[in-house]
Amino acid sequence: RLADILAWAKANPGKFSYMSAGIGSRGHIYMEELGVAAGGIKFIHVPSKGDADAAAGLLGGHVDSIAVTPGGWSSLVQAGRLRLIATLGETRTKRFPNAPTVKEEGYNVVHLTPLGLSLPRGTPPEIVKNLHDRFRQAVNDAEFAAYMDDRENTIMYLGTEAYIKAWAESYVMEGKRAQLLAGN
Q1: Does an H or E element contain 126, and which?
Q2: How far apart are CA 31 and CA 19, in angstroms?
Q3: Dihedrals φ, ψ of 123, to 5°?
Q4: pTM of the model
């Protein structure tokens, strides 16, 4: 259980290690935020060259845990080589419904990884609309949906204006997160 791991890490400062895809990666930020949320736990962060490198580090016994995207762990969990403790989404994943979210475990740490298309300021509106329409069509494609589902990624389509607003809000939130973690 996540609570047991965090209790051990808190009782043994500086001994619990994890790998992420690198310094400043989402996994790095999430684990540090979890440490703050769990009462100021100091983890040992071991940066890697990416998700596959981090998984190899865990499988090789070099670290206690990994904090990477589902693409870095889902096939290993399915094969029984890794155990999934918790995920960072709002809800449990379809493929691993028995793994709770970090939020369910009592820590208000939820992270999604939005992706979007950005264009230079001043791009003509007709080009923006054309690209918007084509990307929306691609997002609604069944093959793309299956690809995303296979990687435990949720499609959260936003139109142009909604995406601009969400990105601005995310920028502010990430700045607050960085300030919080800089003080940790």
Answers
A1: helix 125-139
A2: 10
A3: -60, 130
A4: 0.74
- Tally Cβ neighbours within 10 Å of residue 17: 17
Q: Which tokens go with 147?
A: 């690809």
Beta bridge partners of 47: 20
8-state DSSP, 47? E
In angstroms, the CA 109 to CA 32 distance is 10
Query: Nearest 5 degrees, angle CA 156-CA 157-CA 162?
Result: 110
- R_g (Cα) of the chain, nearest Å: 18
d(CA 177, CA 155): 24
Our CA dihedral for 22, 183, 165, 87, rounded to 10 degrees, sits at 50
For residue 123, what pLDDT is reported?
94
Return the closest-CA partner of residue 65 out of 40, 49, 80, 46: 46
Q: Averaged in consecutive runs of 10 residues, what is the pLDDT profile of the chain (184 residues)?
A: 92 92 84 89 91 89 87 84 89 88 90 79 93 90 86 79 83 73 61
Cα–Cα dist 57/72, whole Å: 12
Give φ, ψ of 95 to 5 degrees: -75, -25
Residue whose token pair is 């499988």: 59
Distance CA 163, CA 146 (A): 23
